[in-house]
Amino acid sequence: MPKVSVAMCSYNHEKYVATAIESVLGQSFADFELVIVDDGSSDKTVQEIEKFSDPRIRLFRFSQNKGAGLAAQRCLEELRGEYIAVLNSDDVFLPGKLERQVSFLEAHPEVAAVFSQAEIIGESGEPLKDKSNFYYAIFEQTNRSRQAWLNHFFYKANCLCHPSVMIRKTVQDEVGAYDPRLLQLADLDFWIRLCKKHEIHILPEKLSGFRVRAGEANTSGAKPVARFRAIVEYIQILKHYAELETVEEFLAVFPECPERLRPSSPELIPVALARMILETGHPLHPSHRYFAMSTLYEQLADPAKVERIGQQIGFQYRQLLSLAGQYDLFNILPGWETCLFLDCGAGFSEEQCVRLPANFGLHEFQLSFALPQGLKVQKVRWDPVEGKFCDIHMESMQWLLQDGTYKQINWERLLHNGVTQDNGAWRFECNDPMVFLEVPEQAAALHCQGTWHFWSAAEMDAYYGQLRQKLQQAEASWSQRYDEMRTTMEKKSAVLEGRWNEEREKNALLRQQYEAAIRETEALKNSCSWRITAPLRYWAQKARASWK
Questions:
Q1: pTM for this structure?
Q2: Coil, strand or helix: which one is 391?
Q3: Domain 4-218 top-level CATH class
C-alpha cells in the first residue's frame, strides 16, 4: 500500500494536466499513488493523461460531466494511502512537497492536516506579479487554533490553498467527502467540518503552485455566475456554525459575542448566532443575514420552543418581525453610486467626477476609477456612498500608472472624515463619507479593493439610541453639577450674609458708642465745672505759647 495517495480531478485541462502530473512524478518522495478521475472532459485531457505510463498512475473516467463534487467522491473512494494530497489538474506541486509534509505529519500526530504557502503562477507558470490580483497574497496566513480558524472562515471565508493540503486518510474518512451540492465553496465547507474536530497547520514554505488563469477562468474566478453561486452556497455552509454542540465551543469560536447575546444552553446557540449576525454590526456578507433570518424563522417554528426561548432571553415573535423589516436582504432599494471627484486646480465639483455603480448588498468591492485623459488632476476625493453610514476596510489601494506599473497607496495615512478603528477600518458616522488622495504623475486609474458594510436600520437605531443615552447622561451630569454649584453658592452666600449681618451689628454698636460719646462731650461743655475752669485753660494755653 502506498504511503501517500495524490488525488486529482480533471476536466478540460489539456493545456495544464501534463505539467500537473509531471510535478507529482518528480517528487523526491516516491512512495505514492496518483489517482485521477476525469469528469467527462470534452477536449484532449484524457489523451494527455494516457501519455504517461508510470504504474503509480490510476485513471478513472466519467463518460459525461457529473460535477466536481461527484468526481472528488469517486476519487476518494479509490485512495489507499495513509495520507492524502490533493492537486487540481491545472495546478502543480513544487519540489519536496510530499517529503516535507509527510515528515511533518509523522512528527506531529496531533495535527490532522497540513497546508503550505503557495506560489501564485500565471498561464505559462510564471510568477504572478500583479499585486492587485485577488490571489496575490490571499494564502499568506499564519497558524491559528481550530476555533480561531472557524472564526476566520465565518467572517472572511476561505484563505487556505486547496492544492497545498495533505490530510490523514482516517481524518478524511471521519469528516466525510466533499459535498457534491457545492462547487465554489466545497473546500471551505470541508475545512469548516475539519476544524470543528481537528487541528490544522500551515508550513511556511511554498510547496504548491496555484495557477491564476486569464479571463477569470478559474472555478473560483470573479465571474457573475461564480459570485451568484457562492452566495447560495455560503448560506448552506453557515449552518455548520448553528450546529456547534456546546456553549463552551460556541464561545471559543466567537469570543467577541456580546454578553447579552451569549447562549445559556446548546438549544439557544442557533438563536444567539443569528442575533449576533444581525445585531452586532459586523461587516458581513449578504449570505450571513439571509442565513440569520432563516435560522430565526426555523427556531421559532415550534410554539413550545418559542416559549422556552422567550423565558430565557426574551426573544419572541415581536422581535423576529421587527428584525425582518430592518434589512434589505434582496437589494430591493434603488441602486447606488460610488464617486471619485477630481480637483484639477479649481476645487472639487459635480462636473469633474467619475461615477461607478455599486452594489452595496455585497460585502466585498473591487473598484477601478479611470481618470479622464487630457486632464491634469491634482487631487481626488473618493465618496464611497452618499446618504449612508458605513464601515470600510481596505485590502488594496493603488494607482495604475500610464506605463502599466502600480504605485501602492498607504491608506492608513489618508485624510478622511471618519474614525479609524482598532482593526484599521474606517468608520463613517455621517451621511457623506469622504477620502482624500494626492494624485501622482502619470496616474491613469485608481484601483480599490476591500470590504464595506452599510449600516442597517437596526444599527442606526442603536447608534442614535447610544447618542440619546450619552446626551441624557451629559444632561444628568450637567444638572448634577449645576445643583452642586447652586448648593455651594447658596452655602457661600449664607456665610457671607452671616458675616455681613455681624459687621452690620458691629457698626451699629460702634455708632451707638460714638453717639453716646458726643452726647457726653456736649453735656460736659454745658456743665458748671467746664465754665469755672475756662480761665485756667486760657492762662495755661498762653503759658505754653510763651514757653515755646
A1: 0.66
A2: strand
A3: alpha beta
